[in-house]
Design brief:
Pfam family, one (chain B): ABC_tran
Oligomer: heterodimer
CATH superfamily of the largest domain in chain B: P-loop containing nucleotide triphosphate hydrolases
Number of strands of chain B: 13
Protein name (chain B): ABC transporter ATP-binding protein
Order of helices and strands of chain B: EEEHEEHEHHHEHEHEEHEEHEH
CATH architecture of the largest domain in chain B: 3-Layer(aba) Sandwich
Radius of gyration of chain A: 18 Å
Distance between the termini of chain A: 22 Å
Strand order of the largest sheet of chain B: 6-7-8-3-9-10
Strand content of chain B: 25-35%
Order of helices and strands of chain A: HHHHHHHHHH
Number of helices of chain A: 10
Shape of chain B: globular
Number of domains of chain A: 1
GO molecular function (chain B): ATP binding
Number of strands of chain A: 0
Number of helices of chain B: 10
Largest sheet of chain B: 6 strands, mixed
Distance between the termini of chain B: 34 Å
Keywords (chain B): ATP-binding, Nucleotide-binding, Transport
CATH class of the largest domain in chain B: Alpha Beta
Largest interface: A-B, 29 and 30 residues
Organism (chain B): Paenibacillus oenotherae
């Protein structure tokens, strides 16, 4: 499948202009920073708090913004117009995801700086954060493609918020509810596990597991988003 | 060379045929009107021809390729489309909307000014779309559809709900495109529009083509075999075309009594009603 960087850039620039004039949605950029400011005074050993900041930011910022961008295009019929141009599926999906990816990366970098979190391995931490942004962007794309209106898109992210943000908390109840073991494999739980790794006594496997699990989820979500988009190209 | 070739297309939704065995062809450079009331299958056919919908059976070729290939970028460069499902970016200006399309079609910057001139919106180029009237928005959508000067243009009721001034702007634009060789596939339920613009029309009703031909041909085919005569004294006659009538008219002419003499031609709307028993609404 071909990708034209010029077309990707054209869609990105268009989205940037639209987003910067859409104050109702662009205000969400400040939420992760507010969370970080409010919680930065907590005990640095409570990495779960920082995990909560990151995981809720992924949903509130990344998934919500992406879902709104896609749903608004559907609501106003611009997505169908875009589909009728030479832009390929990948041109549109990458172009429409780049803005949210860039915004999330910058805002989460600021939030991490404010919170003062120092990872044991910066490269693995950055890789997991990048994969998570891609994963939650794909989740937003899926929510947006399932929604017909902006309102529906806002509601459609609730299951994502419950499952993904709530998973690390749910995984703590595994002793009482063994079925919750599955929640340990949700990317948000893996991110918290990564944040919990201390400077001493960890193995490469401890670092790689969150990375690989998040990578697997990311691949699955990207595939679902692409397939769903291609189905939306047709009316049946 | 046929730009569109449709053979025995059938599209079934549930237990209802939206299109039932539709066949026709459109040669290059023609403005072809697809006429029919709402729900007659016009939009369904456009969707099949632009690969947005699969036919249940039959086949269609568009621009030398099977219709299902129309979702490929190379084919998309060759056609433009304006339908009910077209939209604009509300927070962007007219020029910013067109700039997106210019870049997607990899066109030179001058194409924006050219198309704005064409739809008569050069002075409004910096206006935001959410401040435009419905007619202006429709013209911007047309500009987006034709900025790349497509070989084939699909228009689904382009002037529905537009005032005569805005419709006239669009007609002017379409005639210009036609002169440049663009083939135009136009669906409408406006008979006057079809008569004004189209080289040929097909009347679609209940998923089937009832008749096809040029407006002139159709009118001739469905012409009543009578001649209308208005005399200067106010009397009016509808007379059968035969030898007796010829003698009578010759006599009136000699005496200088004829005010108006005409054959009785039906409008396209009359033909539609005659063929389907339905009003075009």
């Amino acid at each position: 499948m071909s990708i034209s960087l010029k077309r990707v850039r054209a869609i990105f620039v268009k989205d940037y202009k639209e987003f910067s004039r859409n104050y109702a949605v662009s205000i969400i950029l400040i939420f992760p920073i507010i969370f970080a400011l409010l919680l930065r005074g907590t005990d640095p050993s409570l990495t779960g708090v920082f995990g909560l900041v990151l995981n809720s930011s992924f949903v509130i910022l990344t998934t919500f913004a992406q879902a709104c961008l896609i749903a608004e295009e559907k609501e106003r019929n611009t997505l169908r117009s875009l589909m009728m141009t030479p832009a390929t599926t990948m041109d549109v999906l990458i172009g429409k995801s780049t803005l949210v990816f860039a915004m999330s990366a910058v805002v989460l970098a600021i939030a991490t700086y404010i919170f003062g979190y120092e990872p044991v391995n910066i490269w693995v931490f950055v890789a997991v954060i990048i994969l998570s942004i891609i994963l939650y962007t794909a989740a937003g794309t899926i929510c947006g493609l399932f929604s017909k209106t902006l309102l529906e898109a806002s509601l459609s992210i609730i299951p994502v918020a419950i499952v993904f943000t709530g998973a690390p908390g749910g995984a703590l109840l595994v002793k009482d509810f063994p079925i919750f073991k599955v929640l340990e494999y949700v990317p948000s739980s893996q991110l918290v596990n990564l944040l919990n790794i201390r400077n001493i006594g960890y193995t490469t496997g401890d670092l790689l597991k969150p990375l690989l699990v998040t990578l697997a989820w990311t691949i699955v979500f990207i595939i679902v988003a692409v397939v769903l988009y291609q189905r939306r190209l047709k009316d049946e | 060379m046929n730009v569109i070739q449709v053979e025995h297309i059938r599209k079934r939704f549930g237990n209802k045929d939206a299109l039932a065995d539709v066949s026709f062809s459109i040669p290059k450079g023609e403005i072809f009107g697809f006429l029919g009331p709402s729900g007659s299958g016009k939009t369904t056919l456009i969707k099949i021809l632009t690969a947005q919908l699969h036919p249940t059976s039959g086949q269609a070729r568009v621009l030398d390729q099977p219709a299902e290939m129309m979702h490929h970028s190379v084919q998309k460069m060759r056609f433009g489309i304006l339908t009910d499902n077209s939209g604009l970016y509300e927070r962007l200006t007219i020029e910013e909307n067109l700039e997106l399309y210019r870049q997607l079609y990899a066109l030179p910057k001058s194409s924006i000014s050219k198309v704005l001139q064409f739809v008569n919106l050069s002075e409004e180029r910096n206006k935001r779309v959410n401040l435009l009237s419905k007619g202006m928005r429709q013209r911007v959508m047309l500009a987006c559809a034709i900025i790349h000067e497509p070989e084939l243009l699909f228009l689904d009721e382009p002037t529905s709900a537009l005032d005569p001034v805005n419709s006239a702007h669009i007609y002017k634009g379409l005639r210009y495109l036609h002169e440049k060789g663009t083939t135009i596939f136009l669906t409408t339920h406006d008979m006057a529009e079809a008569e004004l613009l189209c080289n040929r029309v097909a009347i679609l009703y209940q998923g089937q083509i009832q008749t096809i031909g040029s407006p002139k041909e159709l009118k001739r085919q469905h012409r009543e075999n009578v001649v209308c005569v208005d005399l200067i004294n106010g009397e009016a006659y509808e007379l059968p075309i035969d030898e007796g009538t010829a003698d009578r008219i010759a006599d009136w002419m000699k005496r200088g009594l004829i005010d108006r003499l005409a054959t009785k031609e039906p409008s396209l709307g009359d033909i539609f009603i005659k063929m389907t028993g339905s009003e075009l609404l």
